[in-house]
Amino acid sequence: MPGIIILLIIGAAAGFIATRTMKLNTDIPTTVVIGMAGAVFGWFALRFVLSLSWWLAGLIAAILGAMALIWLWKTYF
Fold it and tell me: Please, what is the Cα angle at 57 between 70 and 38, to 5 degrees?
């Protein structure tokens, strides 16, 4: 139950800030729904971007590691 209340408060705050920033006049229930939907959308978008960035960071690290091994091989063998 407390989680739902916190979600409503955060949704209301986010919706209020977003609707005022975008100069959109809405009633309170619409503002809360916009904020909660935006939070869900933002959460999925952020997870996607972070997972993509971790994948890309892993690829770059693998390439750099392979280049270091090739350099060691060419230098010492």
Answer: 170
- Confidence at residue 1, expressed as pLDDT on a 0 to 100 scale: 65
pTM of the model: 0.61
Tokens (6 digits) for 14: 């986010």
**Region for 26 from its dihedrals, namely left if φ exceeds 0, alpha if ψ lies in -120 to 50, beta otherwise:** beta
Task: Quote the CA–CA distance of 35 and 13 in Å, as a whole number.
Answer: 7
Boundaries of every domain in the chain: 2-76
Phi, psi of 26 (to 5 degrees): -130, 165
Query: How far, in Å, CA of 55 to CA of 48, rounded?
Result: 11
Question: DSSP of 27-48, one letter per residue?
Answer: -HHHHHHHHHHHHHHHHHHHHH
